[in-house]
Design a protein that fits this description.
alpha+beta; Thrombin, subunit H; Pdz3 Domain; 3 domains; seven-stranded antiparallel beta sheet
Length: 513
């Protein structure tokens, strides 16, 4: 029997009636009036025939962001940029230097140039806080937001976080504005529907749909604290700062970048995950900026060989190669050789994920680090500090042995590894930036084809530890090798001082070299 059903009835059956949610998860630091609720919809029971109900509900909270900005320009800067392609031509550097001196003598002041840009944003509170991208409002002297009805509102900058490319602005005019809530991108699976709203190329109120193509995308050193969502909903210039929604009407991402050889959408767009965006925007609203956590450690990936040397089942984690004196890590009890397994219960996979987790921690808060030390797991609580401009500064390298170092009377050899050592003296410790009582053996000679050479170790490097034990003598190193062999391991883990940087490596002890 053929059943007839209207399109409207079918849509209603699939989507259900739109409803207002009973729970507001606007940032706790905001104080909306009693009874204020974020926009929410009833999710569809199956694959949607249309996104119209979703878009109709959330669109009032999405705005276009029009920005007037100023930047300083001068003719010398423009010339340097133009002549960069000719760098190396005879006389070019002299010409630019003469022009710079002439400009200083004449007292030329850099001039400002006005620029206009378009972006997107969305309300996250009833009293007018709006999330957008930092690059949309950077250097802004005037910010205007326009809602779906074309109403224009003057806005002011609350704060920015360039590291995550997020910013918060606020409408100056008091009122009750429709707002949306952050969801959790972790609830999305690859292939789930997403809908993006924004202001591409100035066409306000544009909606595009697609799926979550991938998550956890890394986009290089310019975004050290963000694992991006990749979506194939069309995102173009002007979509920056706009929201990506799930089918519940929750914001699961903030659109920020595209990958395109043409400048237009080719189906590879990136969004900042909602949970990170919510964390950052709350901090901005509270303090005007984001204070990033700082441990004061140098860390590196835990390789499979390192994990095998420690008797670990896998190489998930990051090993602490060095601890800065008087740093939060030092005060909290973290040590060189500790393997970080998780931060506040969230597992880490490598040095990069560890750095990002620590960077997201709020300064001056206590955080739980699960570590492996000496083959035993333990938990250490550390109050992280605030990252400064020089927190990641590199120290100047130095060599333990000078080039003219001759033969030492107290050299000791270890034939099984193909290496000769000399003791670590006070002069060498000072040169390497080590403590006065630091134990270690300085490599003075390396045999061709030996285990030390195969491990990439060279003359002048210093072995500080072997399997978490300070190496004060060759006998200590021999004992570490014997203990590893007794445990049926083919590698030992060593801490090596290279100049003023400590790294971890492994030495193959599976056979005499």
């Amino acid at each position: 029997m053929k059943l007839g059903i209207s399109r409207q009835a079918l849509v209603a059956a699939l989507f259900g009636a739109a409803a207002i949610g009973s729970l507001s998860i606007a940032p706790q630091i905001l104080s909306p009036e009693a009874g204020a609720q974020p926009i929410a919809i009833q999710p569809p029971a199956g694959a949607p025939m249309s996104f119209a109900d979703l878009i109709e509900r959330v669109e009032p909270a999405v705005v276009s962001v029009n920005v007037v900005s100023e930047r300083k320009v001068n003719d010398l800067g423009d010339m340097q940029q133009f002549f960069e392609q000719f760098r190396g031509l005879p006389g070019l550097d002299d010409f630019l230097e003469q022009r710079r001196q002439q400009q200083e003598e004449e007292g030329d002041e850099p001039q400002t140039q006005e620029a206009r840009s378009l972006g997107s944003g969305f309300f996250i509170s009833q009293d007018g806080y709006i999330v957008t991208n930092n690059h949309v409002v950077e250097d802004a002297v005037q910010i205007e937001v326009v809602n779906k009805d074309g109403d224009k509102f003057e806005a002011e900058l609350v704060g920015t976080d360039p590291d995550t490319d997020l910013a918060v602005i606020k409408v100056k005019e008091a009122g009750k504005y429709p707002y949306v809530r952050f969801g959790n991108s972790h609830n999305l699976r690859k292939g789930d529907w997403v809908v993006a709203l924004g202001n591409p190329f100035g066409f306000s109120g544009t909606a595009t749909a697609g799926i979550l193509s991938a998550d956890g995308r890394e986009l290089g050193n310019d975004s050290p604290y963000t694992d991006f969502l990749q979506i194939d909903a069309a995102i173009n210039r002007g979509n920056s700062g706009g929201p990506t929604f799930d089918l519940h009407g929750n914001v699961v991402g903030v659109n920020t970048q595209i990958l395109s050889p043409t400048g237009g959408s080719v189906g590879i767009g990136f969004a900042i995950p909602a949970e990170l965006a919510q964390e950052v925007t709350q901090a901005i609203i509270k303090d005007g900026h984001v204070s990033r956590g700082w441990l004061g450690v140098q860390i590196q990936d835990l390789t499979e060989d390192m994990a095998e040397a420690q008797g670990m089942p896998n190489n998930d984690g990051a090993i602490i190669a060095d601890v800065t004196e008087n740093s939060p890590a030092s005060k909290g009890g973290l040590q060189r050789g500790d393997i970080i397994l998780s931060v506040n219960g969230q597992k880490v996979s490598d040095a990069t994920s560890t750095t990002r987790l620590v960077g997201r921690l709020i300064a001056n808060t206590s955080n739980k680090f699960d570590i492996m030390r000496g083959g035993k797991q333990q938990t250490i609580n550390v109050v992280v500090g605030e990252r400064g401009d020089s927190a990641n500064a590199q120290r100047i390298p130095a060599s333990a042995l000078s080039k003219d170092s001759g033969k030492h009377d107290d050299e000791a050899s270890l034939e099984s590894l193909g290496v000769t050592f000399v003791p670590l003296d006070d002069e060498m410790r000072e040169r390497l930036g080590l403590d006065k009582d630091e134990a270690g053996l300085v490599i003075s000679e390396v045999e061709r084809g030996g285990a030390i050479e195969e491990a990439g170790l060279q003359r002048g490097m210093v072995i500080l530890e072997a399997n978490n034990e300070p190496v004060s003598s060759v006998d200590v190193l021999k004992k570490a090798i014997d203990a590893a062999k007794k445990a049926n391991r083919t590698k030992i883990l060593i801490a090596v001082r290279v100049g003023q940087i400590t790294t971890y490596r492994t030495i193959d002890i599976s056979e005499d070299k």
